[in-house]
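User: Teach me something about this protein's shape.
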Amino acid sequence: MTHEIHLELLLGKQVLDPTGKPVGRIEEIRAQQQGDEWLIQEYLIGNIALLERLSAWEIGLAILRRLGARKIYTGYTVPWQQMDLTDPQRPSLRCHPEELKSCQKSTT
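Assistant: First, the predicted structure itself:
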C-alpha cells in the first residue's frame, strides 16, 4: 500500500523519541528517484541538518568559529524505516536516538 505525505508539511516538525522526549526537528529529507517515483531514504533532524538544508555550511561554520565553537553535535540521520509518520503532525522515532548515526561537524 502506498502512503503519500506532503513533505513540505514535515519540515520543521518536532520529532519525539519512543518515550515522548523531543529529539529535534525535521530539517532535511533525502530521497532517491526510482522510475517515476521518489522514495525517502532518510530524514535529517537537528540544527546541523538545518544548515545543510539552507546550504549554509561555510557561513554557519564561520559564525560558529567566531563564537568560539569547536564541535557541533546536534543532529541525527534517521533511516526512513526508523521514522514513524502514522501521525504526520507528531512524527516519532521507532528507535532510541542512541541507535542513530549522529550528524557531527567540526568548526576547524
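Now, about its shape. Residues 104-108 have pLDDT under 50 and may be disordered. The longest helix spans residues 57-66. If you'd like, I can walk through any region in more detail.
User: That's plenty for now, thanks!
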